[in-house]
Amino acid sequence: MTRLCSYSHSPTVSQFTDADQVLTDHLMWELQEMVRLLKKELADTQAREAWAIQERNEALAAGLKLQLDLADAAAGAEQLADRLAEADAMRDMAAVGLFDDVLIDVDEFAAVTL
Questions:
Q1: pTM greater than 0.70 (yes/no)
Q2: What is the pLDDT of residues 71-93, one digit of tens each?
Q3: Residue 111: how many other CB atoms lie within 10 Å
Q4: 106: left (phi over 0), alpha (psi -120 to 50) or beta
Q5: In what helix (H) or strand (E) does residue 114 lie, and over which residues does it extend?
Q6: Is 1:27 a contact under the CB 8 Å cutoff?
Q7: Which CA distances in Å does 22 have to 15, 57, 77?
Q8: Can you list the alpha helix ranges (DSSP code H) found in the chain?
Q9: How far apart, in whole angstroms, are the C-alpha atoms of residue 89 and residue 58?
């Protein structure tokens, strides 16, 4: 490390001693180490944040897909209900037609036998 100020204009201010320089060097090293650790912590935090955002986006996409699947299922159920209603109506019409045929046959039978 570069030696800090070793000269003073004032005679009352003493010069840095070697012990002062060692202490200053150590404090600078500790400060640099803290900065390095803080940068590492920041990078780790940013990585966790990116992972959390990715997880959230995947969950939102899955939720949207589920909503679309539910909408498709509801539309399919509605189509099925419509087809069942049509089948019921056709069955009812067939039953009425069959009943009418039976009535006609009974009337014809009655006319022939009477």
A1: no
A2: 999 999 999 999 999 888 888 77
A3: 8
A4: alpha
A5: none
A6: no
A7: 14, 52, 81
A8: 18-113
A9: 46
- Burial pattern 20-52, b for ≥16 Cβ within 10 A else e, equals eeeeeeeeeeeeeeeeeeeeeeeeeeeeeeeee
Token reading at 107? 């009337």
C-alpha to C-alpha distance for 72 and 65, rounded to whole angstroms: 10
| Beta-carbon contacts of residue 15 (< 8 Å; ≥ 6 apart) | 6, 7, 8
How many angstroms from the chain centroid is the CA of residue 39? 29
The answer to whether residue 47 scores a pLDDT higher than 70 is yes
Q: Using alpha carbons only, give the angle 4, 7, 8 rounded to the nearest 5 degrees.
A: 115
Using CA atoms, how far apart are residues 36 and 44, in angstroms rounded to an integer?
12
Enter the tokens of residue 81. 């209900």
DSSP 2: P
